[in-house]
Amino acid sequence: MSGLSRRALMTALAGAGVTLGTASRAFAFSEDTPNIRTLALHDNACGASASHKELVSEVERVLGDKYSEEEKRRVIAAMTCPICGCPLSGLF
């Protein structure tokens, strides 16, 4: 083998592992406080708008008369919106 010996390769990989292991945080993502425009966009996309209420009414329709109101409420309380992840518990 020409070029790099096994020992040199292992030393280089160990050094890279130490370098990566000592990084304090990832700079690719950052948390930001949403502004009013971002909150409005979120609310218009899914929020406590008609789409959540449509989901609740669809669940109630699917469950029908087979279940009591209390059982329906428990099912809806455990559900989240598939679009935004908001809980649907306050909409029944």
Describe the fold and architecture:
- The termini are far apart.
- The protein has helices at 6-21, 36-45, 50-63, 69-77.
- The model has no long low-confidence stretch (mean pLDDT 75).
- The chain is 53% helix and 0% strand.
- It is elongated, with a radius of gyration of 26 Å.
- The number of strands is 0
Helix/strand-derived class?
Answer: mainly alpha
Report Rg.
Answer: 26 Å
Summarize the biggest pleated sheet. none
> Order of SSEs, N→C?
HHHH
Strand content: under 5%
The coarse overall form would be elongated
Mean pLDDT: 75
Low-confidence sequence ranges:
none
Distance between the termini: 71 Å
* Helical content band: 40-55%
Helix count equals: 4
Layout of SSEs?
Elements: H1 6-21, H2 36-45, H3 50-63, H4 69-77
Quick synopsis:
The chain has 92 residues and is mostly helical.
